[in-house]
Model the fold of this input.
Amino acid sequence: MDIEIRIEGISPIHLGSGREDVNIDAEIVHDACGLPYFPAKRFKGLLYESALEVSEMSELSGCGLLPGETLKELFHHDDTKSDAQLVISDFHMETKEGYKKISEELKALEENYPEFLKPSDVLDVYTSVRYQTELENGVAKKGSLHNMRVVDAGVVFCGTIRLLHGTEQHLRALAFALRNLKAAGLKRSRGFGRIACSMRLEDGRTEKDLIAAALKEAV
Done:
């Protein structure tokens, strides 16, 4: 089953690449054309952490909305023998033209007119550079100036995840995890990284429908 996922940046997000250069201390991940993307591995890790939070809250409340066993089956923790499998690919920017089309056009322009358009120019359209410094006795500490690139608020990443051999319970687990997932990237305590996630199934149902059905059964 294919599930459409949408990740909207509510605030600037730093999806770090672990790289730096002479101008940027902390760079973000982006493709060869300069378009930012949301890495699949990072999203899966965040999704698991969110699902674990919901499962723990469910257990403490005694409502059983997200059993720990379902979580193990979905993410294959503790050597579970479940047939369920979650396949996640990188999430790319939502554009009117479509990511594939715009990336192909940008690649052609960058190759044919490198003097006018470079990947860094494209990256600058969707990102900003933020500067921070450490204060000492109310004065900027010498040598503490640091900068990082962030994806601007309002940028939306979209993609499709595939649930193989999954059940309705696994779908509900994904719905709860997505609804609970509110932050990504660095500096979350400083106002960065706020996100909103949503999903749509092939039959048109959304995370709201799945959660409503689960809550109705739990009453």
The helical segments are 40-61, 68-75, 99-112, 119-126, 168-180, 207-218. Residues 40-61 form the longest helix (22 residues). The radius of gyration is 20 Å.
